[in-house]
Every structure is written in C-alpha cells, then in structure tokens.
Design goal:
The chain is α/β, with parallel strands linked by helices. Helix content is 50%, strand content 10%. The strands form 2 sheets. Strands 3-2-1-5-4-6 form a 6-stranded parallel sheet, with helices on both faces. Helix 5 links the parallel strand 2 and strand 3. It starts with 30 loop residues before the first helix and ends in a 7-residue tail after the last strand.
C-alpha cells in the first residue's frame, strides 16, 4: 500500500504590485476643479440676482400714507383741471384767429382796388416792424446770456433722478426746464444755467425740445460732482430738508437744484445725496416770510425763478410773493399781498406756464 506524501511548503499567493499613478493630461480638465468652478459661478450668479432684486425693491416707491394719498389725489385733480383749461384756451385762440382771418378777408372784399393795396402794404409794414423788433430782442437776449456765462450766478439742475420718475413726471420736468430757460432769457441779469446728468432717458427727452441744441446753457453728461470737481468747496445743494437757511446768494457759490418730480414720494433723497458727497446744503428762507399751506417743496422752475428774482431785487419776501402761487400760501399771507392785485391782473405762475386772470374791482352801489 503506497502513500501520497504532501509537501509541507506553503502555497505562495502573488502579492499585488504598487502602481505609479499616471500623470494627468494638462489638457484634460480636473473634474473636481470643474465642479468647483460651476458651483462658484452659480453662487456668483445667485448673488448678483439677489443684488439686482434688492436694487429693484429699493427703487420701488414707498407706500403712501393716507395724507399723502389725499395730496396726490388733489394734485391729480389739479393737473386734470389745468389740462382741460389749457385745451379750452387753445381752442379759443384757434377760433379768434379764424375770426380775425374772416374779418380781414371781408375787409379786402369790401374795399376798392386802391384801398385794398394800401391795406395790404400797411399790413406788410406792421409785420416787418414786428419781425425786426423780435430780431433785436433775440440779439439782446443772446448778448445777456453770453455775458452770464462769464459773470452770471451759476445754477445747476441735477438730472440724475430719471430712474425714480414715471414718463409723465419726466415730461413735466422737461416743461419746467423749458420755462426756466425762457424766464432766465428774459431777465435783465440772467444766471448761468447748467444741466448735469444729461444721459439716457433725460438726454433723449431733452433732444425732443424744439431748438434745444441752440440753447445758451451748459449741458453735461457727467454728474455735477464730476463736471465741477475742482469747485467742490463751492457746491451748495438747495433742499428743504437742510438746517442751513440761505440768507444771501454768493457769486462764487454754485447752487444745485434737484431735477425731481416725485409728488413727495422720495422725501430727503437730495439731502442724503449731498451728505454722502460731502457738499454743503441750504434751504430758502421761506418760513421767515410766509406760511405754506402744504410742504415747502417747490417745483424746479419756481426755485430758479425765485433765485433770479432775488438776484435783481435782493428781497426774499418780494421774490416769494411774486413766484409762489396763492394756492400754496396760507390765507393770511395771500390777503396780505392781495391789495396789489385788486382791480388789475393776477399773475398765477406754476409749473411751466404763466396764466393771467384779469379781475375787475366790484362796483359800489
């Protein structure tokens, strides 16, 4: 009987050999880094989106109180009534022109040939004289405005608030700017007007104004803080929220008016802007001479006309009573200045147009 002998030598299993990692191809993107970049880009986009949403929220008008809503409704009724009256005046002018034309035609038909020629020649002479007079007035106006560029009081209208106004409010501001330029041109000592921030929507609307490119006025696409950076110490922002009362106009100072029609939605925004820029602020001394029936916020053209009137009269009270309409003054102040208007023409100036309503003194029995 044979036996099978087994070797006592243990069976040797092969050990795994250490492998050297292959170097990454520089052109092959690292998956981890690619994922990190995607995550970083997504985070940045999300943060930018959140910031844009926050900016939109901040740009939204603040909710109005009941008192503010009443004032807004009153202003809307006033605007509607003013537009209706303007349309009536325009229609009346059209009818008057048509009536005069018909009267002229009837006069020519009824006249003899010799008389007709004399009437036509006389009318031509009157028209020629009127055109010459207008031309002379235009030349004198240009001369005054050119002189104001050298020695006139500098007044800036800040046009960097277009994003806070509706299309209707921007249109209203354009009307006020047109009125400012017209009033300044009629002054014997006009100021040197500046428009700063003329870009975007503001620039487009300004270009629509007839003859705007010929205006003798400074037009800057930059902000006033950039255009007048070498005179920053002389900049004075006029705002009703300032604690500094303006007693006198200094020739070296540059007075800034916020070009904003907001119906009191953005209270204190010009004051905050001036404080952030580190420039001086001041307010007109309205409270020292009259009481306002509402807030002391005036339109752009009213502020500029007050400044121009003061430059000629050096009398704040006379300037306020001449410019600020009676509807914005308390009854006691209106009565105080009523004597000058009885039996004559009451001038009611407000937001871009002058309205004259002639009144007659009542007859005594």
């Amino acid at each position: 009987m044979s036996y099978v002998t087994c070797s006592t030598t243990p069976f040797a299993f092969p050990l795994p050999q250490a492998t050297t990692p292959k170097p990454l191809n520089p052109r092959t993107p690292n998956p981890k880094k690619r994922d990190q970049r995607k995550l970083s880009r997504a985070t940045m986009e999300e943060a930018e989106k959140d910031q844009n949403d926050q900016n939109k929220i901040e740009a939204l008008p603040q909710p109005l109180s009941k008192n503010a809503q009443k004032k807004l409704l009153k202003q809307q009724r006033f605007e509607a009534k003013k537009a209706e009256k303007k349309a009536q005046i325009k229609e009346q002018k059209r009818k008057d022109a048509e009536r005069r034309r018909k009267e002229w035609d009837d006069t020519l038909v009824a006249a003899s040939e010799e008389e007709r020629q004399r009437l036509i020649e006389s009318r031509r002479e009157v028209k020629k004289e009127r055109m010459e007079k207008r031309s002379e007035e235009r030349e004198r106006k240009i001369e005054r405005l050119m002189k104001a560029k050298e020695i006139g009081q500098k007044i800036v209208i800040d046009l960097e608030f277009s994003h806070l106004m509706s299309a209707t409010e921007i249109h209203s501001l354009m009307q006020q700017i047109m009125y400012c330029y017209a009033v300044n041109g009629r002054c014997t000592s006009p100021g040197h007007l500046w428009l700063t921030g003329c870009r975007g929507e503001m620039e487009q609307q300004l270009q629509k104004i007839p003859g705007f490119e010929k205006w003798i006025i400074e037009k800057e696409s930059q902000s006033y803080i950039e255009a007048l950076q070498d005179q920053k110490q002389n900049l004075v922002y006029l705002t009703a929220d300032s604690v500094n009362v303006l007693d006198e106009l200094a020739s070296e100072k540059i007075y800034i008016i916020g070009g904003l029609v907001d119906r009191n939605r953005w209270k204190g925004i010009t004051m905050k802007k001036a404080e952030e820029q580190g420039i001086q602020t001041a307010k007109l001394p309205i409270g020292d001479f009259l009481k306002m029936s509402s807030s002391q916020v005036l339109t752009v053209n009213q502020v500029i006309e007050i400044l121009l009137t003061f430059l000629e009269t050096r009398d704040w009270k006379a300037s306020f009573f001449q410019v600020i309409p009676q509807r914005k003054r308390c009854e006691s102040d209106a009565e105080e200045n009523q004597g000058a208007n009885e039996g004559g023409c009451e001038i009611n100036e407000d937001r871009g147009e002058i309205k004259k309503q002639c009144t007659e003194a009542p007859l005594s029995d």
